[in-house]
Request: fold
Amino acid sequence: MNDNAVFLLSNGVKIPATGFGTWQIPDGKIAFDAVSQALQCGYRHIDTARNYGNEQSVGKAIKESGIIRSDIFVTSKLPAEVKTYKETLESFDKSLSSLGLGYIDLYLIHAPWPWNRQGYDYSRENIEVWKAMEEIYKSGRCRAIGVSNFEIPDLVAILDNCSIQPMVNQIRYFIGNTQNGLVHFCRQNNILVGGYSPLATGAILANKKVAAMAEKYDTTLPKICIRYVMQKGIIPLPKSTNPTHIKQNAEVDFEIAASDMEYLDSLSGTIKGLRLSNIKRKIKKRLISFYSYFGK
Ligand code: A2P
Reply:
């Protein structure tokens, strides 16, 4: 893995251009082994969250890796359900203590709404939470702050009311799900985009068109997916508990030609198994807007 590839956040902090995701990796030996293996394979950017329940094992693997703390970039996230100033400070302290690493590099609001209220407007609460995020940042206990799963209106609410802008927005990003408008908005506002689920949580692995592209480059389908995200200027956060996969995913040392990138761009909305979920999500959002408007 190219250890030197970094992006600069808007506050000048360096963030490794590829990270290792730990969503759905259970705490204990599985998370410990996966993170240890990722570090051995060259990953220097580990992404966790309070809600993943694995901060303790992630922290332990980092501490026992023998790599100096400042060479590893660690992200954690405020649970989506936490929407008050006080609870934000408390939850950060819990993450800090579970990880046991002295400080967190990047701390994100996990989502604009609690998971069981997706699509609802929590702007007022997020503005309050962001005040606590700014306090945490100013205290020096984390080096950068940001958000995750925020869409443009959620970001506008923060940008209009903050004294420190979010430095990152981490979103679901893979071939066929590129959220171009949102990415463009983030870039215009100097917000770096991180992409979780670059393999569509496994749903893309059987895609014949992406498999044909992998064959053309004499590589694997997961590597095409990861490389695609990298070439879009977004931080891929692939996850795996399989040591061979972790090693393979860390060795993405080829270039996809511009014409092939355009072809992969054109697959937007056509990846089997994803189209329906996107349509369902859009219908749900429309219904929520409709009911919140007429319910007022
Ligand atoms: P596994 O843990 O067995 O490797 P995403 O990063 O989009 O969330 O996708 C994660 C899923 O993709 C997991 O099910 C993981 O399974 C699988 N995966 C990750 N890397 C590879 C790989 N190189 N080959 C096959 N499957 C992979």
